[in-house]
Specification:
The chain is an alpha/beta fold. The chain is built from 20 helices and 8 strands. It has a 4-stranded parallel β-sheet, sandwiched between helices. Strands 6-5-7-8 form a 4-stranded parallel β-sheet, with helices on both faces. Strand 1, helix 5 and strand 2 form a beta-alpha-beta unit. The termini are far apart. The chain binds Double cubane cluster (BJ8). The site of Double cubane cluster has 20 residues, from helix 7, helix 9 and helix 19.
């Protein structure tokens, strides 16, 4: 990797501490990712992105800022990327997935809080995340109580704007969300000095739809048995989706999908001579809380056993790309309505009721030919933990095996989780 120390210094980073962080990532990535066999060639681009995760992309953000462009950090798939793009700013997903930051987060937050919140707070306080350091503004949302209150503390360190997300899906909630999107447009126009026009918004909707389509194409290819790509690699792509340039990312995912298409054709030709089911790995769906980079814990455990993760019903999975935004309409109000309609189709446990998530799970179980579901719950995430009971009941009614695993970013429980997953795979 090139020397980015000057760049990091200009971002007011703690270089010494950042060196400690950089020392752990290559080893973790090597043992989790590079050790996989038979990876598609197209993963080389994503390997490169990871190797330059604190380098090239940060350089691109810095160049954008030099031209007076703005960078905005987000934490939730409800924040409409289309508005950020239409105001000519760059959005970066900041959901922190490393144990490295938890300790610093705990200096200002209670210990019994979701690790994702503690990690993002720690990432900012420690000055070791160059994405955070590049942000002119953070966009939070009122999804869970932990995040909602954490924005107040974060705002002391970086300007934090909060979108008020409704928690029900009645007509009045749709109307309210439209109003919130309007206010967000106003905020983005104020900080960037750029007007969000109908044409600009329509073209950013189009860009985002293309990106969603590419991810959907990747997930559709995973429906094939055996999946032409590992769950670990797919998860990485979903994680990189939050930070990479939209056009380049879409192009690279489509290139990879072309390769996977070809792989499937080869497998189909060979399948006549294979003893199919004997070799078949158990097909697992992951559902639950998001897995922010570099949280690869659950996938890595499952795929070290005789199983493959073929779909993630999470925000680092289907919830990010399902449903496109309509480009129909003549006015900005029309497009705002289309945005509100699409975004409120996301089935997050912060909504009550949230029965759409159960429908999604049942549908995916069929479409992806699932053998079992693993509900992965970040510790202290109450909305998902409480929702688990209803999910368990609904899946059991359909004879779909499911287990719940609550965990954080630490590695102490890896052995224990492995034993539970192993037992689960044996019975399904
Ligand atoms: S749409 S899942 S990204 S809120 S931070 S709720 S894990 S206790 S992230 Fe989320 Fe948006 Fe919903 Fe998706 Fe729980 Fe932790 Fe809260 Fe979390």
């Amino acid at each position: 990797m090139a020397d980015y120390r000057e760049l990091w210094t200009s971002l007011d980073m703690d270089l010494e501490k950042h060196d400690q962080l950089c020392a752990v990532l290559p080893e973790a990535y090597g043992s989790t990712y590079l050790s996989q066999e038979n990876r598609p060639e197209g993963m080389n681009y994503f390997n490169f992105v990871v190797s330059e995760i604190h380098g090239l992309r940060i350089q691109e953000l810095a160049e954008h800022k030099e031209k007076d462009g703005k960078v905005v950090g987000t934490f939730c798939v409800f924040v409409p990327d289309e508005i950020i793009l239409a105001s000519k700013a760059i959005g970066v997903g900041l959901c922190a997935g490393s144990q490295f930051w938890v300790e610093d987060g705990e200096t200002v937050l209670p210990r019994n809080l979701c690790p994702l919140i503690k990690a993002f707070m720690g990432a900012k306080l420690s000055g070791t995340c160059p994405y955070f350091q590049s942000c002119d503004m953070i966009v939070g949302e009122t999804t869970c109580d932990g995040k909602k209150k954490a924005w107040e503390i974060l705002d002391e360190h970086v300007p934090t704007y909060v979108m008020d997300l409704p928690q029900m899906k009645r007509t009045k909630d749709y109307n309210m969300w439209e109003q919130e999107i309007k206010l967000f447009i106003k905020k983005m126009e104020d900080i960037t000095g750029n007007k969000v026009t109908v044409e600009g918004l329509r073209s950013s909707i189009d860009l985002m739809n293309k990106k969603r389509r590419a991810l959907k194409r990747l997930y559709d290819l995973r429906k094939y048995t055996p999946s032409p790509i590992s769950g670990l690699d797919s998860l990485l792509i979903s994680q990189i989706a939050f930070n990479d340039d939209v056009v380049r990312f879409t192009e690279k995912v489509n290139e990879l999908c072309d390769e996977l298409d070809a792989r499937i054709s080869v497998m189909e030709e060979a399948s006549a001579s294979l003893e199919g089911d004997k070799e078949r790995k158990k097909r697992i769906m992951i559902t639950g809380t998001p897995m922010a980079v570099p949280n690869w814990k659950m996938h890595s455990i499952i795929e070290s056993l005789n199983a493959e993760v073929v779909v993630e019903e999470t925000c680092t999975g289907t919830r990010y790309f399902e449903n496109e935004v309509s480009t129909e309409g003549e006015t900005i109000e029309d497009l705002i309505k289309n945005l509100a309609d699409r975004y409120l189709k996301i089935n997050c446990a912060c909504f009550t009721p949230n029965t759409g998530r159960i429908d999604d799970l049942v549908r995916y179980a069929k479409e992806y030919n699932i053998d079992g579901v693993i509900h992965s719950n970040l510790s202290f995430c109450h909305t998902y933990a409480v929702e688990y009971k209803g999910i368990e009941r609904a899946l059991k009614e359909k004879s779909i095996p499911v287990i719940n695993i609550e965990t954080d970013y630490a590695t102490e429980d890896v052995g224990q989780i492995k034993t539970r997953v192993e037992a689960f795979l044996e019975i399904i």
